[in-house]
Design brief:
Blueprint lengths: L14 H17 L6 H14 L7 H4 L2
Helix pairs in contact: 1-2
């Protein structure tokens, strides 16, 4: 996967969330012919949401 750091973190998910990720992965495999895992879908969703966050609101907490 491009852009990965080699670090793998375990993230707890609700069973229902994992089931949705499995359905999304199945859709991509069957309809789009893209072989993707539920974990890869989760990673992409997390990355997208973090990228869209307004980090300036957290600036005071992030100062060293």
């Amino acid at each position: 996967m491009t852009g990965t750091t080699g670090r793998r973190s375990k993230i707890a998910l609700l069973a229902g969330d994992w089931e949705k990720l499995e359905k999304i992965a199945k859709y991509y495999k069957e309809k789009e012919r893209i072989n993707v895992t539920p974990g890869q879908i989760a990673s992409a969703l997390i990355h997208t949401n973090i990228s869209e966050m307004d980090m300036s609101r957290l600036a005071s907490l992030l100062k060293d």
